[in-house]
Amino acid sequence: MSISVDKIDDGLPISVIVPLGEKRRDFFENMVLPMLEANNPMEIIVNDDIGGAQKKRNDGFFKSTQQYVFFCDDDIILPANYLQLLYNRLKLEHKSQRIGYSYTGYYGVVIHPDKHPLHGNFTTPSTPFDANALRRGNYISTMSLIKRDVFPYFDENIKRFQDWDLYLTLLEKGIHGVLTPNTFFWAYYLDDGITSNSNDISDAIMAIRTKHSL
Predict the structure, then answer these.
(1) Which class is 3-211 in CATH?
(2) Each residue of 158-179: b (16+ CB within 10 Å) or e?
(3) Tens digit of each residue's pLDDT (9 = 90 or more) over 34-67
(4) Could you tell me the pTM of the whole model?
(5) Which of 23, 101, 108, 196 has the largest count of CB atoms under 10 Å?
(6) With the CA atoms of 12, 76, 106 and 79 taken in that order, what torsion angle do they form, in degrees rounded to the nearest 10?
(7) Is 196 in a helix, a strand, or coil?
(8) How far is CA 94 from CA 10, 89, 147, in A?
């Protein structure tokens, strides 16, 4: 178990950070990693050390050096120009200290539709940033490009909806996101899905709402 860092010469000023689970190693190495490399980030940091996803992401961030960070799950496949598009969109907002990250929608690919609660493939087209909508519920994926200097770290005590908690924390600091339109990645649902998660969804939502006084 370790944290590995691969450098790409003349890449985008982005550190990609992956919390890798052992059960998904083959899928990651054969499917996910080649497309991460095709996106040409300066760093790809893979953390397969012991600990939950939030801890792996935070520990990976400590190892990172680039101006932008992109937290990528080990079951995500990016189109070859994905990071460039998010980077370009975020750079358009360089004069705004209020904009801290760019995000997109995604395609969900359910491998076991007979066992998964989603029962089949789906599309989640994200929408332009709306602070009130974010307070009501999460519509922004973890897979967003974030300015290094605004990243508040993941709360390692939050069991579910870590991305929602992250963006609410940023919102409380006055940091908004910006949508990169007409852009998607593929999220592969390789297991039985959220029904296998021992954390009750209503309790998880209440934990977020209580923390952020919603």
Answers:
(1) alpha beta
(2) bbbbbbbbbbbbbbeeebbbbb
(3) 999 999 999 999 999 988 999 999 999 999 999 9
(4) 0.92
(5) 101
(6) 50
(7) helix
(8) 21, 9, 10
